Amino acid sequence: MTRAGFVALIGEPNAGKSTLLNRMVGAKVSIVTHKVQTTRARIRGVAMAGAAQIVFVDTPGLFRPRRRLDRAMVAAAWGGAADADIVVLLVEAHRGVTEGVLRILDGLAEIGEGRKVALAINKIDRVKSEALLGLTRDLNARYPFAKTFLISAEKGHGVEDLRAWLAGELPEGPWLYPEDQIADLPMRMIAAEITREKLTLRLHQELPYQMTVETESWDERKDGSARIDQVIYVVRDGHKGIVLGHKGETIKAVSKAAREELCDFLGRPVHLFLQVKVRPGWLDEAERYSQMGLDFKDGD
Fold first, then answer.
1. pLDDT of 285 strictly over 70
2. Each residue of 231-270: pLDDT tens digit?
3. With 216 labelled, which of 19, 106, 141, 272 sits at a CA distance of 20 to 30 A?
4. Phi/psi at 154 (5° precision)
């Protein structure tokens, strides 16, 4: 008997959701950086575990929203949790029960008591075992978790136990995707996410958060390679200069890193061309949100 279903990964920004998703799936389908709020869309990664197919919904980190984009991201996160068969709450071991975690626990109570929720305490290598035991007791006293896992998404500790438990808890039924499909995002969006990750890693503190990447065109060539044209939208002229860098050094480095990863991901040559455009109002354009897999109306 086969099993299949959706698992939503929720937590504060930087809790390790994207790292866990990528390790579970065994491929890079969600961008991983040290900047918060890098995951914008509900990225589904598909993992096989015996006769079970686990479809992961990687949600944006849950935080206090201030802008339209923030509100749309938080709505997407709770939407992913409400639609899932199982929810996994990730909590950073070294940060413990923060105000953000308490808000998420309140939100979990609101989306329905009948929902199966597991607790995954992540980054366990950063604290001592006594502290882990105390944190486990504290969180389980605050919410009736179905199961608690102590993991390191980055190093892989405890991840297989979590995967096996999820596989056994999913509803019986046919698989939802072909066995060899790892994500249901269009390749154009995955390509844009890869470029946005390289920008994030390269720019660090200088990064203009009001920036997005879109794949404008994708041309399959006769020699088996692909030509990909992308646009990086920023809201100010000054941001354009930051993204381009001195004599174009930043954009060249970003393009090279993104192209190399795309070549590895696709298993064939890629010709990547990047442009930077100033678009002051992109945060208020419905089309930009749909490109990111978000609902523009959720930002109201």
1. no
2. 999 888 888 888 998 999 999 999 999 999 888 877 889 9
3. 19
4. -70, -40
pTM metric for this prediction: 0.63
Strand partners, 229: 217, 273
**pLDDT per residue as tens digits for the range 25-74:** 876 665 554 544 444 456 567 888 889 998 887 665 555 555 666 566 65
pLDDT at 37: 47
Domains of the chain, by residue range, sit at 3-169, 187-299
3-169 under CATH 3.40.50.300, yes or no: yes
CATH number of 187-299: 3.30.300.20
- Direct distance between the N- and C-terminal alpha carbons of the chain, in angstroms, rounded to an integer: 44
Q: Residue 294 has which token pair?
A: 């978000």
Is 210 exposed, middle or buried, given 0-12, 13-18 or 19+ CB atoms closer than 10 A?
A: middle
Instruction: Enter the DSSP assignment of 183.
Output: B
8 A C-beta contact, residue 98 and residue 89: no
Q: What's the CA gap between 274 and 19, in Å, rounded?
A: 27
CB atoms within 10 A of CB 297: 10
Dihedral angle at the C-alpha atoms of 282, 203, 232, 298, nearest 10 degrees?
-40
Length of the chain, please? 300
CB 298 within 8 A of CB 252: no
List phi, psi (to 5°) of 248. 75, 15
Cβ-based neighbours of 110, under 8 Å, separated by 6 or more: none
